[in-house]
Amino acid sequence: MKRVLVIHGPNLNMLGKREPEVYGGETLTDLNEKLYKAADQRNVQLECRQSNYEGEIIEWIHRAEEEADAIIINPGAFTHYSYAIRDAAASINKTIIEVHLSNIYKRETFRHESVIAPVVAGQISGFGSKGYILALEAIAGEDNNE
């Protein structure tokens, strides 16, 4: 059974309240419930965590070297400037998929660059919570060459 760590970055605890015109009305609890259900259907052991603190996210990535087979991460605003999270992701030998609820390339110019993307397996943006499910499907299908 694959073990997947989902890391929700800063401000994702405010889903459902923060800019619903951009992020929709779904809360983080709603999103995690969807993810746990999708993981069960794919025989994946899932753990979801959220932090507004860069150092805590880095520690989780480091520990994932031993505790997980893959990571799905939405680094939030850290996407655009956290070389520390980028270096943490590059330092482990795990599949990592970067996910964003909104299409970061259709938003403010400063959101168009991800410093994380060059060191992860792929990036999914603009599909809301379905992006997390797509990442989970990609990870679950790795052994089947899907």
UniProtKB/TrEMBL annotation:
**Is the keyword Amino-acid biosynthesis assigned to this protein?**
yes
CDD domains from the xrefs?
DHQase_II (cd00466)
Catalytic-site annotation from UniProt: 23, 100
GO annotation, biological process: amino acid biosynthetic process; aromatic amino acid family biosynthetic process; chorismate biosynthetic process; quinate catabolic process
Which keywords accompany this UniProt record?
A: Amino-acid biosynthesis, Aromatic amino acid biosynthesis, Lyase
Q: One GO molecular-function annotation for this sequence?
A: 3-dehydroquinate dehydratase activity
Q: What is its EC number?
A: 4.2.1.10
Provide the reaction this enzyme catalyses. Answer: 3-dehydroquinate = 3-dehydroshikimate + H2O
Under the heading Pfam families, the entry gives:
DHquinase_II
Q: In which pathway does it act?
A: Metabolic intermediate biosynthesis; chorismate biosynthesis; chorismate from D-erythrose 4-phosphate and phosphoenolpyruvate: step 3/7
- Per the record, where is site Transition state stabilizer? 18
Q: Which residues bind substrate?
A: 74, 80, 87, 101-102, 111
* Enzyme category, top tier: lyase
Q: Does the keyword Lyase apply?
A: yes
Recorded hits in InterPro entries, A to Z, give: DHquinase_II, DHquinase_II_CS, DHquinase_II_sf
Subunit annotation: Homododecamer.
Role according to the record: Catalyzes a trans-dehydration via an enolate intermediate.
Q: Record's family? A: Belongs to the type-II 3-dehydroquinase family.
The protein depicted here goes by the name: 3-dehydroquinate dehydratase
Q: Which gene encodes it?
A: aroQ
